[in-house]
Amino acid sequence: MAETCPTTGIERLLLSTDGSEYSEGAVREAITLAKRCSSKLTIVSVIETNPQFEALAPEVVEKSEKAMRKHLEAVQKRAVLEGVDCGIIVHRGEDTYQYIVDEAVRNKSSMIVMGKRGRTGIKRLMMGSVAARVIGHSPCNVLVVPHEARVEFKNIVLAVDGSRYSAAAAIEAINTAKRNKSMLIIVAVVLSESIPPMDIAFSQTQRDLVADKELKESEENVKAVKAAAQKEGVSVTGLILGGTPYEAIVDIAKEKNADLIVLGSHGKTGLEKLLMGSVAERVIVLSTCAVLVVKTV
User: Lesser CB count within 10 Å: N end or C end of the chain?
Assistant: First the structure.
């Protein structure tokens, strides 16, 4: 019996890989998703170079491209063995993210799947410029998959803040949870070091721990999304978390054994598109599970 597609509207997937071990999680999950959803999979990679370097060391560039094509052909073979329709594309250039975004536009991709590199120290709080810019400019949702992560759609954490960006993420998360009979954990974070995670139904007694207005807004946001999820028959919990937003989201995802975090993207225009929201960026960097960034039009 054919597997059920875990989400809707992903007829065309774009997998971005740099050929490193950090891309393995993205490769694995992209093939799995494409197989389950009968999606067309396109694999893209970019050789970072410029005209000056190519003129000075053409053999180095050629060697890099040859190695990358070998990697993509190996991934393509894996996909074909799983019955996935798969094509490969290699580009050369300086603005890596632009080639990836352009391919997403050209192929009318429904989702971009990409990995992330492991980082330590202060670098753990900063995302690679390529990944950040891909997300900022992407015309579609972006799934970021750490090396060891597996997206099983069992426990999904949805971060909400009342914005139209999180509203789009809520729709995506509820629909996905409904299709997979997932447990959906809706979270809103207020800046506080003392407020513990608590079910929305019992948060009234904690009002003295945080500013009343901020807590009230968070409660209303969570209640609204929780009600929408319940209307769709989704098993759902609503939590108000205290602390630093990105830390609270990552920590609750670990505590609840989440295999997916869903959050919204700023989707800004102009130069601002180069800057992701700091919360979203740091959640992606620190999370050990996959993160789905939902775009808005």
Answer: N
Using one digit for the tens of pLDDT, what is the confidence trace for 236-248?
Answer: 999 998 888 889 9
The pTM assigned to this predicted structure is 0.87
Q: Note whether 15 and 58 are within 8 A (CB).
A: no
Sort 153 into a burial class: Cβ within 10 Å, 0-12 / 13-18 / 19+: middle
Contact 280, 187 (CB under 8 A): no
Q: What six digits make up the tokens of 99?
A: 């080639």
Q: Taking the domains of the chain in order of start, what are their residue ranges?
A: 12-145, 155-294
For residue 56, how many other CB atoms are within 10 A of its CB? 9
Contact predicate 163/256, CB 8 Å: no
pLDDT in tens, 201-212: 555 555 555 457
What is the Cα–Cα distance from 133 to 267, expressed in whole angstroms?
11
Backbone Cα Rg of the chain: 20
Question: For 12-145, which CATH superfamily applies?
Answer: HUPs (3.40.50.620)
Q: State residue 203's pLDDT score.
A: 54
* Cβ contact 263:166 at 8 Å: yes
